[in-house]
Specification:
The protein is of the alpha/beta class. The chain has seven domains: 32 residues, no CATH class; 230 residues, HIV Type 1 Reverse Transcriptase, subunit A, domain 1 (HIV Type 1 Reverse Transcriptase, Chain A, domain 1, Roll), CATH 3.10.10; 70 residues, Alpha-Beta Plaits; 112 residues, Nucleotidyltransferase, domain 5 (2-Layer Sandwich); 97 residues, Rossmann fold, CATH 3.40.50; 46 residues; 167 residues, Ribonuclease H-like superfamily/Ribonuclease H (Nucleotidyltransferase, domain 5). 33% of the residues lie in helices and 21% in strands. The protein has 27 helices and 37 strands. The strands form eleven sheets. Strands 23-28-27-24-26-25 form a six-stranded mixed sheet, covered by helices on one side. Strands 20-19-18-21-22 form a five-stranded mixed sheet. A hairpin with a 5-residue loop joins strand 2 and strand 3. Helix 10 crosses helix 11, helix 12 runs parallel beside helix 14 and helix 24 crosses helix 25. The longest helix is centred in the C-terminal third of the chain and has 20 residues.
Length: 922
């Protein structure tokens, strides 16, 4: 009997509870996934038996959307050789990817992989692009950079099985199946005492891993230990395990299905799930640990020697020298090397003419190639000894050789594509290491090895200053491997050097470009408007014209959805209109439509290093009329209560575009009568400012003072970190009243760690209150306002607002004036934090570390700029409106600071009395 309730189907008397969504998935799972897993080489009997087995065990397969299971047979511990808390600054991420980060964090929270954290530890997070699948859907991977934590982690010396002994167990097996656990590491729980060490931060907050994350030093050893424990009854009998690879083998079909069932029963017993699309069943031949395993025996993977076997006969002296450099490196292992190589060496003599039909020359070349790719020179790997990976890069290719005790195990090389050829020397040499480490992963993963390179700067790979995003990604990819880098001289690097100069028509593996999991080198993405680029491509649904020229020098190419299918048209337009420089691209179409344009531009300009493409996430309205733009500026300036040039520009820059926008804002603000009459002239020459400590969080330090206007007093406070200001009306200046207002502020915004205040607050009641609440106090030097400059600076801004409100809006009530002024202040983007103070209350995803870094940088720039000796004031005063200091301003705080006069004779003006123009922005 079925009972349908709340979108669930419950089957009476059975342990069965599944949603409609899961039923739909399982139906699709049965129809599609099973067919994909069944090899086309199977006969009808094998096909039917395998399909029945998969149907019978479908509960062992991980279904996307379900919570990932965990096993309790082992927990991962992080044992460190130091009690040092590892805290690293976060990396900056493109704002366009913040939604993707939030999405993946929510998924991991839902699956109980992570949880919110209060840990003092922090490792930085990075996001890299995955390889595109058949759907061309963009996918991203979150990566935690645990390098600093791994440096102090004690090695787990869990024994790794000998590969030769593993192969001995395969015997005359006829069937092979390889299994892969779903998100394998995430099915292992972290030890409770070590969870805090895995903490990381995102704009959403601070989190830590409940399950074992990728990137931890000893994670592979823990994973192997777990599999060895679970499958201990079957290892070397019906399966072999190497790191995260499970290979099931049998001599007959019936035996193989029984063996698979035993393995699946064990996985079910320990609550583990299998990733169905990464498994291979009933193969007659499979690749495992760099070897090809068949029912006829084991043979080396031909890919590791194909580079040498496919070498062409040298036709120039340069080619001969290069080939002899390769073979000569191994001459001590080649019997009678000089005799064998002599038919080639003879052509190095002066005035010798190379005869490519010379039989002895050809035989010598083929014999040396044959020696290089066969025993005894080409050896089998000995996993009890250290591997040496030697790499090199040229302008056209990268090469590597894996060896032990001077003898090669495998050769590898591939040609660089167009954008890779534009990499710097350091990037090419590092690409050679990253690609070859991934290529030889079965040999190198989980053990320490040596990397040899003739590029000396790579010795200090992990201490490079200001690495670009590509190098950061590659460093994180290498973090799962353990190796030392050794510098060798170029003349000692003959083999890898030779391989790096071999140009192939096709790369040896389909995965060769997987190390570059990001945008093409010619393409960049920024969170800014496209309008600022002189040449633009705009992808639109329907276009009103093909090409548009704005502001005389700005050219816009419109590409409609229909144009994407017209290859000849796109080729013609792009070749004709796109020249050197940066090209901005904005798309209002789906991402896969943009990918078509990106691929087309890559094909057309892959060989040019003089053009690049910037995908922009924003587009502004083009305002061609200066009159219309001035009207927009006037509207924003007036509604913002006459804020300054920077504030007006920040409000307008992402919504309206004109090349003269900054110039017009400068001109408008400097000619605004309200601003000139009521704002301070902030140009006094004082002694140089000193750099002060920047807080790390809100409420770490607040400044308080008393603000007086029209015989009314207000207790004002400002948070030194967020710049958030408050004002509380005082009925009197009694310290009991002041204490009450401080308590009001704490009730609303929280208790501060420290309060900075003038000496008028140096009172027993205030001191006792702070002492009882564990608040540190700092009283400024008497008769010095600079010690409490944050709140004094806010007061001056509040007075500007109040004067404007009083004279322009005719508001007289002091409480209304102060409250409106503080509201304008908190809703204006602050020049130090680049955020509105009110944002720290309204938003929860603000990265405090980023705000601190930005505040320190902006404050340092501002202080350094202000510390430069001021220039002499030189203005053309003839026939201009001048703003002269108002004598009443010193007596009345709300009076105009300046009065406007018109002078025809500048000699009558004392230049110390008039107002400077507002400082323009460039």
């Amino acid at each position: 009997n079925l009972i349908i309730n709340n979108n669930k189907i419950n089957l009476n008397n059975n342990n069965f509870n599944i949603s409609y969504e899961e039923i739909n998935y399982l139906e699709k799972f049965e129809l599609d996934k099973f067919k994909e897993l069944i090899p086309t080489t199977l006969n009808n009997e094998e096909n039917k038996l395998l399909e029945n087995f998969l149907q019978r065990n479908k509960k062992t397969f991980y279904i996307k959307g379900q919570n990932l299971t965990t096993t309790t047979c082992v927990k991962h511990k992080i044992i460190t050789n130091s009690n040092k808390i590892i805290y690293c600054k976060n990396y900056r991420h493109p704002q366009i990817l913040e939604n993707e980060i939030e999405k993946q964090i929510n998924e991991m929270l839902k699956e109980n992989i992570i949880r919110p954290s209060k840990s003092p530890y922090n490792s930085p997070l990075w996001i890299v692009k995955k390889k595109s699948d058949n759907s061309n859907e963009k996918k991203w991977r979150l990566v935690i950079d645990f390098r600093r934590l791994n440096e102090i982690t004690v090695d787990d010396k869990f024994p790794i099985p000998n590969i030769e002994s593993l192969f001995d167990k395969l015997g005359k097996s006829q069937y092979f199946s390889s299994l892969d656990l779903a998100k394998g590491f995430h099915q292992v729980l972290m030890d409770d005492s070590d969870i805090e060490k895995t903490a990381f931060s995102t704009p959403m907050g601070h989190f830590e891993f409940i399950r074992m994350p990728f990137g931890l030093k000893n994670a592979p050893a823990t994973f192997q230990r777990m599999l060895n424990y679970i499958l201990s009854d079957y290892i070397n009998k019906i399966c072999i395990i190497y790191m995260d690879d499970i290979l099931v083998f049998s001599t007959s079909l019936t035996e193989h299905l029984e063996s698979l069932q035993k393995i699946f029963n064990k996985l079910n017993e320990f609550n583990l799930k299998v990733q169905i699309d990464k498994c291979k069943f009933l193969s007659k031949e499979t690749s495992f640990l760099g070897h090809i395993i068949t029912n006829a025996g084991i043979k080396p993977n031909p890919e590791k020697i194909s580079i040498i076997k496919n070498l062409e006969l040298p036709k120039t002296v340069k080619d001969i020298k290069s080939f002899l450099g390769l073979t000569g490196y191994y001459r001590k292992f080649i019997k009678n090397y000089s005799l064998v190589a002599n038919p080639i060496i003879k052509y190095l003599k002066k005035n010798s003419k190379i005869d490519v039909n010379d039989k002895s020359y050809i035989e010598s070349f083929e014999k040396l190639k044959n020696i290089l790719v066969n025993p005894p020179l080409l050896r089998y790997p000995d996993f009890s000894k250290k591997f040496v990976l030697t790499t090199d890069a040229s302008n056209v290719a990268i090469g590597a050789v894996l060896s032990q005790e001077g003898k090669p195990i495998s050769y590898a090389s591939r040609t660089l594509n167009g954008h890779e050829q534009n990499y710097s020397t350091l990037e090419k040499e590092l690409l050679a290491i990253v690609w070859s480490v991934k290529y030889y992963r079965p040999y190198l993963y989980g053990r320490k090895f040596l990397v040899q390179t003739d590029h000396q700067p790579l010795k200090w790979l992990y201490s490079l200053k200001d690495p670009n995003s590509r190098i950061i990604r590659w460093k994180i990819l290498l973090d799962g491997f353990y190796f030392d880098i050794e510098y060798i001289k170029g003349k000692e690097n003959n083999v890898a050097d030779f391989l790096s100069r071999v140009q192939l028509t096709q790369p040896p593996l389909a995965e060769v470009h997987s190390v570059e999991e990001s945008l093409n080198n010619k393409f960049f993405m920024i969170n800014k408007i496209v309008n600022k680029y002189r040449t633009q491509i705009r992808l639109v649904k329907n276009k009103h014209k093909e090409i548009e020229t704005l502001f005389k020098k700005y050219k816009i190419l419109y590409v409609s959805e229909n144009d994407l299918n017209n290859t000849h048209y796109l080729n013609d337009v792009f070749r004709r209109e796109l020249k050197n420089g940066k090209v901005g691209i904005y798309s209002e179409l789906e991402d896969n439509k943009y990918d078509i344009i990106q691929n087309k531009l890559t094909q057309l300009f892959s060989n040019s290093n003089k053009i690049s493409f910037i995908k922009c996430t924003k587009i502004a309205r083009d305002v061609t009329s200066e009159e219309s733009l001035l009207s927009i500026i006037d509207d924003i300036h007036t509604k913002g209560n006459h804020r300054g040039i920077h504030e007006n520009y920040n409000e307008l820059k992402d919504n309206y575009f004109n090349p003269k926008l900054i110039k017009l804002i400068n001109r408008y603000c400097n000619n605004c009568r309200v601003c000139n009459e009521n704002k301070y002239d902030r140009k006094p020459i004082n002694k140089k400012f000193q750099h002060t400590i920047t807080p790390e969080k809100p409420n770490q330090i607040i400044h308080i003072d008393i603000f007086q206007i029209q015989k009314n007093s207000f207790l004002t406070t400002i948070d030194k970190f967020t710049k958030l200001g408050t004002a509380h009306k005082l009925n009197d200046k009694n310290m009991v009243t002041v204490k009450t207002k401080i308590e009001e502020r704490i009730a609303f915004l929280g208790k501060p760690d420290k309060i900075v205040m003038d000496n008028e607050f140096n009172n027993a009641l205030i001191k006792l209150f702070c002492q009882e609440n564990n608040i540190e106090t700092h009283f400024t030097t008497p008769n010095s306002h600079t010690g409490n400059s944050d709140v004094e600076r806010m007061h001056s801004t509040l007075l500007e607002h109040i004067r404007i409100l009083k004279n322009a809006e005719k508001i007289n009530d002091s409480e209304e004036l102060v409250l409106k002024a503080i509201n304008f202040y908190n809703n204006t983007i602050h020049s130090t934090t680049k955020l509105k103070p009110i944002d720290f209350i309204n938003k929860i995803n603000i990265d405090l570390n980023e705000v601190k870094e930005r505040s320190e940088t902006n404050k340092k720039k501002a202080i350094d700029r202000e510390n430069i000796k001021r220039e002499n004031l030189t203005l053309n005063l003839r026939n201009q409106n001048l703003y002269i200091k108002n004598p009443a301003a010193g007596r009345q705080k709300t009076a105009k600071r300046f009065n406007r006069y018109h002078y025809s004779n500048p000699n009558k003006v004392n230049t110390a009395q008039f107002r400077r123009p507002l400082k323009p922005i460039k």
